[in-house]
Amino acid sequence: MCHVIVTCRSMLWTLLSIVAAFSELIAFMSTDWLIGYPRTPDAVFGPHGATAAGEAYRPTLGIYGRCIKLPHLRKGILCGPYAVHFGEIASGFWQATSIFLAAGILLLCAVAFISVFTMCFQSIMKKSIFNVCGLLQAIAGLFLILGLMLYPAGWGSDKVQLYCGADASPYKLGLCSVGWAFYTALGGTVLTFICAVFSAQAEIATSSDKVQEEIEEGKSLICLL
């Protein structure tokens, strides 16, 4: 018989697990990892044939994508991948970052999906599903840390120097600044480890004596604070 067990701690763990997965996924897909130095687009033709300089803007560069301003486009900003193939990613360090982040995000998405069903299923192959998910989150967190540590080592690539100036080098930004995507990925990594630790509390909450008493009373829906 399926017992639906809902506790504050288990629901909070589920919510945080989903937030961690989505924050890492959004950060990975974003182009706002680096914000380039201000520049002016190439001169464009005005309404009477004269050339006019575009407004200054700051391009952004992600792990595999970028946003630049093209004067001949009405929308102005063009965002998309600069790397069509994996080998075209700016540097070997960023390629390694992509692998580690993708592996971590894959594990986090799997845990986020499983966490939704922990209300009905608290064990898998006679092992606590919370403990298994907590272990997966810890492994994902290690992958994410490795990816984020390797990411600044790629700042010396030719691609980054186009956006950040010739002074850019490994672990030195040059004229660029760090965008919100990096901080989001960093925050998601911290949240991942919090979820890994908090999974133990979710396990304790769903296997407490109070829960067992209500199961013995024949209740199929159990809600506890």
Automatic annotation (TrEMBL):
Keywords: Fertilization, Membrane, Transmembrane, Transmembrane helix. GO terms for biological process: single fertilization. Gene3D superfamilies: 1.20.140.150. It holds the Pfam family L_HMGIC_fpl. It is a multi-pass membrane protein. It is found in: Membrane. This is LHFPL tetraspan subfamily member 2a protein. Its main location: membrane. The keyword Transmembrane helix applies. It comes from Chanos chanos (Milkfish). GO terms for cellular component: membrane. Belongs to the LHFP family. The chain crosses the membrane at residues 12-35, 93-117, 129-151, 180-200.
